[in-house]
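Project channel, design review

CF: Before we commit to the Sugiyamaella lignohabitans constructs, I'd like one complete example in the thread so the newer folks can see what an input/output pair looks like. Taking Sps19p.
RD: sounds good, go ahead.
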Amino acid sequence: MSPPEETVTTGNNSSVADGPQKVVLPITPFETYPKARAAPKELIGVEAALHAAKNPDFQAVSTIAGQFSLKDKVAIVTGGNSGIGLEYSVVLAELGAIVYVLDLPEAPSEDYAACKAYIKKLATGGSLEYRVANVTDGPGMAKVTHEIAETHGRLDVCIANAGILGPVVDCHEYPADWFRKIMEVNVTGVFLTAQAAIKEMLERKIKGSVIFTASMSGSIINKDMHWIPYTTAKAAVVQLAKAFACEVGTNEIRVNCISPGHIRTRMTEAYLGVEPLIENCWAAQNPMNRLGSVYELRGTVAYLASDASTYTTGHDLQVCGGHTAW
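CF: and here is what came back for Sps19p:
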């Protein structure tokens, strides 16, 4: 005579013999969430077309250019005296903004002067203004940002672009002082810039845009490029943008990153002048097999700075020729 079959019971007194039990994963009860804020409603795009179909007197006007307009808006750009920051400043001014370029030198560069004159000739309503500022000086950044906001009664766009690369040194030999300096400029400087700008936006109830210049180096490690502090700092900047975005999102202040890949600036060209074969190394690491030009960042900054991106926040837009896709 065979022994009786064992029965294993579960917590609900069902037996294994009854077959597998349905597993229901827990969720947060929907009724515990606060009431959602209403989505904006404007006669734009399809909504405008449908409205026009029902209202013959409705005047059809293209709105896409207007969404990118920065007419009468005020912006600050740190590290805007040259390179990527200067290109960003020119874009914002071309779109109609009054742009304050903040940088360390007591006098602006010749490149800045040429761009200021160029913007004046374009007569877009935008302009470039220069102010001396140090992004690692919290009270100083708060003061200059407040003065700009007070002058115009508003601050709409802030681009925290100032940053340094530092020396290329093997990890086991990297000077700690340089590590601290890079973190101070590239992370603390971005934090202090954003903090000052967001404070002005909040106090004036401005639906503003804050943009950080990060880098693809914040998401990947550059092959054969031994610059640990730089990659560490840029990864921190990406997370910093997400943290700011989550805190001020319900105030309609957007915080995003632009992460360029290898871009041909004058600083890059000077570096390649010493090591020209590095360009081949860098280019081979992206599907387009080339470096980017500074002007190829223009569309991205125009989008993020303008009302074309009103539902984009906490995002890292990588403009790197597909480098991070491999």
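RD: helpful, thanks. Confidence is low (pLDDT under 50) at residues 6-11.
CF: The chain has one domain: 71-325.
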